[in-house]
Amino acid sequence: MRNTRFPLATRCGLTALPLAFALALPTTAVLADSKEAITASIQKHMPGVPIDSIEETPAKGIYELTSNGQIAYLTGDGKYLIAGDLIDVANQQNLTQAKQQSQRLVYLKDVSAERKLVYPADGDTRHAITILTDPTCPFCDKLHKELPKLREAGVEVTYILTPRQGPGSKGFEVSSKVACADDPKEALERAMKGDSVDAEACHNDMIKENLALSNRLGMSGTPYTILPNGAAMPGYRPANIMLQAIEQSAR
After folding, report:
1. Rounded to the nearest 5°, which phi and psi values hold at 214?
2. Shortest CA distance to 53 belongs to which of 35, 41, 40?
3. φ, ψ for residue 228 (rounded to 5)?
4. Quick one: which H or E segment has residue 127?
């Protein structure tokens, strides 16, 4: 799976972004003026980078830029970009991490039912998690075998098919076939075991949507679990470790 680091950082790191911008508006218009300066700088020096939002931060003169789910910080004149986490020292809180977690939950709410494979909890649902999974990923299969224990503990598990190697890969084709099968869950079981899936690969667009979502969620590989509070847990964990993380995230 390709690295999903923030595109602004990979293109310019901490390089100064020179921009001749005169701020002549009154104090009450500083925020609007800063947003305009930042927007102009990004459009000029990094064309093609989407701007989802520009917001003030508690740090004076520093603004938060969200682009395709990734977060970076800029000075109000748009000249300097800071790649890294913003920490509230007094309260010992990672503000960047908190924002990413809340964003993940928002993104997941927008995923349509047809793009999900939902495994309900046995009995009452105590918690719900989402796992980005690849039917050709050995560690995804290993995590899949932990599903009964998670469900017995009251955890509802939602899968989103996300082939780690992207379009053109075997995982992409198999994911599309699983989504197109008459019984996607049964097809996923077969695929996880390495058996063939008797279906057409008719949902390529859906799988591409899932891959776009994985970028916004910050996925670095599969399996990739989103916990109840929006925190991400990459890789395989046995059920007992996952349950500890789930309980802690729900506090």
Report:
1. -60, -35
2. 35
3. -55, -30
4. strand 127-133
Rounded to an integer, what distance in angstroms lies between the CA atom of residue 131 and that of residue 224? Answer: 6
Q: Which of 95, 93, 153 is nearest to 129 (CA)?
A: 153
Amino acid identity of residue 203, one-letter, is H
d(CA 117, CA 132): 11
The Cα–Cα gap between 178 and 184 comes to: 5
State the pTM of this model: 0.84
Across-strand partners of 73? Answer: 64, 82
DSSP classification of residue 28:
G
pLDDT in tens, 95-146: 999 999 999 999 999 999 999 999 999 999 999 999 999 999 999 999 999 9
Asked whether the beta carbons of 176 and 187 are under 8 A apart, the reply is no
Closest residue by Cα to residue 175 from 130, 233, 115, 118:
115
Residues 6+ away with beta carbon under 8 Å from 74: 38, 41, 62, 63, 65, 80, 81, 82
Q: What is the helix (H) or strand (E) element at residue 145, kind and residue range?
A: none
Sheet holding 62-67, edge to edge: 53-56, 62-67, 70-75, 81-82
Report whether the peptide linkage leading into residue 163 is cis, meaning its omega lies within 30 degrees of zero. no
Tokens of 186: 């049964």
Question: The tokens of 199 are what?
Answer: 């279906």
Contact 191, 170 (CB under 8 A): no
Q: Does the CA dihedral 91-96-97-99 come out positive or negative? A: positive
